[in-house]
Design goal:
Layout lengths: L4 E2 L4 E3 L4 E3 L7 E3 L14 E5 L3 H8 L4 E4 L5 E3 L2 E7 L7 E7 L2 E5 L21 E6 L11 H17 L3 E5 L5 H8 L7 E3 L1 H12 L8 E2 L13 E4 L15 E6 L6 H6 L4 E3 L7 H11 L3 E7 L1 H10 L4 E4 L20
């Protein structure tokens, strides 16, 4: 019996009788982070990190949820679990599972670069590592965060100088707050779409500092937002809402901007290669740091990355099917909500 198994409900730990990030209702769910493809509604009981709990409760409503500190052990039916920083978004975690001397780690989503607002990634030694592979191809190589943020600042400043509104798309949980934390807010005022501002409110209540923002309103007078930066979820690009801010320039912050054909498909003036997931080098470095002999590859370029790990790195690697989306082109948590 494997310590962790892949079932039609999610990743399952038979001796503890718990699931990790299950996508169908279960009795007890251990949740790596608050994105909708990992934290779903309908489980009888939830367990997550203390810094992930407020947003998960906000998104899922009245649920039975318990939380632990990073590194705090939690023993369930003789199996020892602990949550460790994944660096993906605020509160995100890798889940370490130990039983009878065997250690597995389920990575959830992760990135190695310290973004300054999320808890920084912590490598965990293990025998088996379950890794995402959202960007598991050599074409995905990220620039340092400060370099991309400077590109965004320059674009915003130039738009302001030419009388335009800068509209930048980012997922409402994670990337939006990372951008708010990092951009130069002295360039001009920052506004946010309702879906993002609602999330900001929850995060600020946790004591996490974000620069001042204002929620966009439906009543827009000519020139009211001139020179401002508006951060909105990707779905807003397809809404009539965005046309109210003309003249404007649209920017997209996404790891997918590394691909030219994706940039062409987006109705954007500027693409910034900016992801909350590990790039090709980050995935390889993370696997090396675990010391794992066995690697299970989930969501993303699973086939290609598994082949690389086997043939080029000599690891015992297999791919596994999950319903996690990674950084998909559409995310269900980013439905339009400007109320």
């Amino acid at each position: 019996m494997a310590l962790l198994e892949f079932t039609d409900k999610g990743i399952y730990c038979p001796p503890a009788k718990v699931h990790i990030d299950p996508w169908r209702p279960v009795e007890r769910a251990l949740i790596t982070h608050g994105h909708a493809d990992h934290a779903s509604w309908g489980h009888r009981a939830y367990l997550c990190t203390k810094s992930a709990k407020p947003v998960i409760r906000y998104r899922l409503g009245d649920i039975n949820i318990e939380s632990v500190e990073y590194g705090e052990p939690k023993t369930i039916n003789g199996v020892k679990f602990s949550f460790h920083p994944a660096g993906h978004i605020i509160g995100s975690a890798q889940i370490r599972v130990e039983y009878k001397g065997e250690v597995w780690v389920a990575s959830g989503d992760y990135k190695l670069e310290d973004d300054g607002i999320s808890e920084a990634f912590e490598p965990i030694k293990c025998h088996t590592f379950i890794t995402e592979s959202t960007f598991g191809l050599p074409v995905y190589q990220w620039k340092p965060q400060e370099s991309v943020i400077q590109e965004i600042n320059d674009w915003w400043a130039n738009n302001k100088a030419t009388g335009k509104v800068s509209v930048l798309t980012a997922y409402s949980l994670g990337k939006a707050q990372r951008l708010l934390h990092s951009v130069n807010h002295e360039i001009g005022p920052i506004y946010t779409h309702g879906a993002i501002e609602n999330t900001n409110r929850i995060i600020r209540k946790q004591g996490i500092k974000l620069p001042p923002t204002r929620k966009t309103t439906g009543n827009i007078s000519p020139g009211a937002y001139q020179g401002a930066l508006i951060i909105a979820p990707p779905t807003a690009l397809n809404a009539a809402w965005i046309q109210k801010f003309k003249p404007l320039s649209i920017g997209v912050a996404s790891g997918w901007m590394a691909l030219r054909n994706i940039r062409r498909k987006r109705t954007a003036d500027k693409g910034f290669v900016f992801s909350d997931h590990a790039d090709w080098q980050g995935l390889n470095d993370a696997i090396t740091a675990t010391g794992a002999d066995r690697v299970i590859v989930t969501h993303g370029y699973t086939k290609a990355f598994t082949k690389w790990l086997r043939q080029e790195r000599g690891l015992d690697a297999i791919e596994a099917h999950t319903e996690f989306e990674g950084e998909s082109l559409e995310r269900k948590e980013d439905k339009e909500d400007n109320s």
